[in-house]
Amino acid sequence: MIPAFAIERTQELLHDIEHFCEKGNCVVPRFYLDSPLADKVTGVFERFQNFLARDLKKEEMDIFALHRVKITSSVEQSKEIDETPGPKIIIAGSGMMNGGRILFHMKRYAGDAKNALLFVGFQSEGTLGRRIFDGERDIKIFGEKLTVRAQVYAIGSYSAHADSVQLCDWISNMKGL
Questions:
Q1: Which of the residues 38, 112, 174, 176 has an alpha carbon 20 to 30 A from that of 84?
Q2: Is 154 helix (H, G, I), strand (E, B) or coil?
Q3: 3-state class of 139 per DSSP?
Q4: CB distance 89 to 3 below 8 Å
Q5: C-alpha 166 chain-centroid distance
Q6: Measured between alpha carbons, how far is residue 171 from residues 153, 159, 162 in Å?
Q7: How many CB atoms within 10 Å of residue 3?
Q8: Is the pLDDT of residue 60 over 60?
Q9: pLDDT of 143 above 90
């Protein structure tokens, strides 16, 4: 399970999945993009590829791995993910786990130690994502108690938030302050 922000983070992740699989000739499990908003935003990114960085503008490449991803728009399609046997990777909103479809997947899969939760974005204080990231394992989702037994990982390089040192460096370079 990958809780992801619908705008930019999901598209970066999809691009990296495609790049990795193209370079590594990998055999991957089924990918699901379970976020109607992320689906719409990805469509905008595809439509306006001429505004993307030069290395992304490869016409011969499906830059967002859409041939590898099953997009679920409806609630019914989202529920069908559970019916699919075998390994799968579910990218769903919301990125900090305070709402969205990721909560339904957490409820279904987080109790099994064979599963994993991968954070690819900053987790703010007070969010469910941050509590899990910090090691809390007994949580509540939709009022139900749940023990997180899934393995928890994070990739910090996807976070777009500057830290205090970066912010101070940025401000110190401004003229007239």
A1: 38
A2: strand
A3: strand
A4: no
A5: 24
A6: 32, 20, 12
A7: 31
A8: no
A9: yes
Instruction: Return the residue matching tokens 């992304």.
Output: 56
Helix segments in the chain, DSSP class H: 9-24, 36-47, 75-80, 102-109, 128-133, 164-172
Long-range contacts of 50-58 (CB under 8 A, 24+ apart): 56/15
- Token digits of residue 122: 């900053």
Q: Which residue reads 């987790």 in tokens?
A: 123
3-state secondary structure 101-133: CHHHHHHHHCCCCCCEEEECCCCCCCCHHHHHH
Extract the tokens encoding 65: 């791995």
- Asked whether the beta carbons of 53 and 11 are under 8 A apart, the reply is no
Q: Where do we find the tokens 């990918």?
A: 31
| Local confidence band at 135 (pLDDT 50, 70, 90 cut-offs) | very high
For residue 7, give the amino acid letter: I
CB 139 within 8 A of CB 107: no
Residue appearing with tokens 């992801």 = 4
Residue 170, exposed/middle/buried by CB under 10 A (0-12, 13-18, 19+)?
A: exposed
Query: What are the angstrom distances between the C-alpha of 84 and each of 2, 4, 65?
Result: 17, 21, 20
Q: Determine the distance from the C-alpha atom of residue 121 to the mean position of all C-alpha atoms in its chain, rounded to a whole number.
A: 8
